[in-house]
Amino acid sequence: MTSSPYGSWPSPFSAASVAASSPRIDGARFVGTEIWWGESVPSEKGRVTVRSSTGAEVLPAPWNARSRVHEYGGGAWTADDRGTLYFVDASDQRVRRLTPDGDLVTLTAAGPAHGGLRVQDGRLLAVREDLSTTPHLRAIVEIPLDGSAAEDESAVSVIVQGEGFFAHPAFSPDGTRAAWVAWERGKMPWESARVQVAEVDGGLPRTIPSRAALQPEWLSDTELVFADIADDRWTLHRIAIDGVTPSGSPRPLAPSDADTGYGLWVLGNRWYQPLEDGRILAVRTNGRDDVVVIDTGGGESIIEFPGDGHVSVDAVRGTRVLLSGNGSRVAAGLWCVDIESGEVVAVRGGEPVDPRWMPASMSIEIDGPHGAVHAFAYPPANPDEEAPDDELPPYVVLVHGGPTAHVTGAASAAIAFYTSRGIGVLDVNYGGSTGYGRAYRERLDGQWGVVDVDDVIAAARGLAATGLADPDRLAIRGGSAGGWTVLSALVRGGAFAAGISRYGVADLRMLAAETHDFEASYIDGLVGPLPEYEHLYVERSPLTHTDRITVPVLLLQGGEDRVVPPSQSEAIRDALAERGIEHEYVLYPTEGHGFRSAETIVDSLDRELAFLGRVFGFHPRP
User: Tell me, what CATH number does 132's domain have?
Assistant: First the structure.
């Protein structure tokens, strides 16, 4: 073992190896005797393909299964048991059908976007979004499979339509009714999503009592189950249905101090699935995830499987289930689990990580000014290197986006890229994060730019106070809403010696004017509605106070970002340049909200490492 300064340790984790590491799984299905899954391909600019357990690529280039409904998409592909693939292509958002013999048929007309695809008994459901109308319209639709709607949009059967938002459509077993979740424009789904039911052949939807509902599923023609808030947690609920009329009130099913569900950002998430014998397989989140089987009497048992973060219950067949997600001791992946025998088969990814290079993260809790702050710490780890006895490691404090989201302490090559070089990582679930209950999530209501900043500063200083981190070499890095917290923390000053903002929010009034429909009123709950709260929009925006930023800043931005447009990063860039503050601005012209292509992932990581080396005075080795 050799002794070298923190940050300069040689590492096998190159930026290129990070870009080529664990697959990003996008849904999975049982198809005949095969298992199919969606997977992003960074080397093909992030194209999402569909692969088979036989080794075949089901969706060949240049097709790219990616939806832009609600901008974040999800549910861009599905398949039936005969091996027919249905997918939304990123280029035009039309739905297409690809048969096993290679016959390709376009199913929807040009114009609207589609997502949340679901095939049941030979019928195809989708969420449709049309931004060409005034006002913009969204709908739950049934798409005919014969291609008749490709030229005649009226051939599509509209089950419900409106100016609000829809997700998670599902037919009843007899096919006569559909259920879904809906919420009004001006609200976010975790604030007001309701379960609705309607006859497929017409009739007004009936709303089931619910407050922040997710994923309705039919247990039978007369009973629904869905996730909803009960007290402080998302919990499964059952309700009897007489036609489309609820009978009584929803009944919580096996409530616990954990969440089955979280923020409905994308359309393809599945937090539970009914099993064929009446039991339910569900994900429970309290920081990390457990997977449990709930029996018909409400009893439960934990399923042993290596994933414990952002687990999705993608499909069920008999006693076998497909689970995708990440883990604290394994790489992200897709597993087939037999819940009776206990057999666990890694279908894609899921390899155990080497604990010498990637020790399990430490779950920590730090007292902050608004209560406990949850975070995961990843100390430096390299079996061949150690640092001088008198040196403490630099740390990068990570701030997730959303802000209504959470991190799970997962192992990843992206984390090891830093820790193997002698740079610690602290991943913070600040107040407002999901996974710790409603009260923790609502801590941020009206306090965005205050609570999140207080919490990340408290977490960073708390870690340094334990002697695990160098208090003079703390950097902060985040994207989107996390980028806002980065810039806001730099404005606050005193805690961080550098900041890295990826497509971060810089000015709230600009964001309110430019952002997309889905988040058009998000800031109303996080700060307050305009115009009466305009003074807070001005006061809390980092762009208002760039004169207080005194440390180096790295700004990374996608040129095609429609959620946080380049104007936000460029406004900060111009303000820093005017004041002569050290900064670097990099625009990736073809990237959107989040970096997907290998070239961008490699370049951004290499730039971040070089930036930290300059600021903290170490020399990264190739």
Answer: 2.120.10.30
Q: Are 161 and 107 in contact (CB under 8 A)?
A: no
Where does residue 17 rank: exposed (0-12), middle (13-18), buried (19+ CB within 10 A)?
Answer: middle
Report the pLDDT averaged over residues 427-443.
97
With beta carbons less than 8 A apart as the criterion, state whether 121 and 133 touch: no
* Same domain assignment for residues 369 and 342: no
**One domain, residues 113 and 94:** yes
Burial class from Cβ neighbours inside 10 Å (0-12, 13-18, 19+) for residue 580 reads exposed
Q: Is 606 exposed, middle or buried (0-12, 13-18, 19+ CB in 10 A)?
A: middle
77 pLDDT band (50/70/90 cuts)?
A: very high
Examine the domain organization and report whether 330 and 441 are in the same domain.
Answer: no
For strands 288-294 and 371-378, give the pairing. Answer: unpaired
Residue 360 is assigned to a structural domain of this protein: yes
Cα–Cα distance for residue pair 313/296, rounded to 1 Å: 19
Angstrom distance (rounded) from CA 324 to CA 337: 11
Determine, yes or no, domain membership for 5: no
**Residue 152 — φ and ψ, nearest 5°?**
-125, 95
Are residues 40 and 427 in contact, defined by beta-carbon separation less than 8 angstroms? Answer: no
CA–CA distance, 319 with 529 (Å, rounded to integer): 49
Strand ranges of the sheet holding 320-326, from the earlier edge strand across to the other edge: 309-317, 320-326, 333-338, 344-349
**Residue 396 to residue 412: CA distance in whole angstroms:** 15
Sign of CA dihedral 505, 485, 556, 131: negative
Place of tokens 């990440």: 326
Q: Give just the sign of the alpha carbon dihedral 464, 470, 472, 476.
A: negative
Q: Residues 107, 138: one domain?
A: yes
Can you tell me the distance from the alpha carbon of 221 to that of 223, in angstroms, rounded to the nearest whole number?
Answer: 6
Domain that holds residue 161: 25-271
Question: Do residues 376 and 348 both lie within one domain?
Answer: no
pTM above 0.90, yes or no: yes
pLDDT in tens, 241-266: 998 888 888 999 999 999 999 999 99
Same domain assignment for residues 344 and 399: no
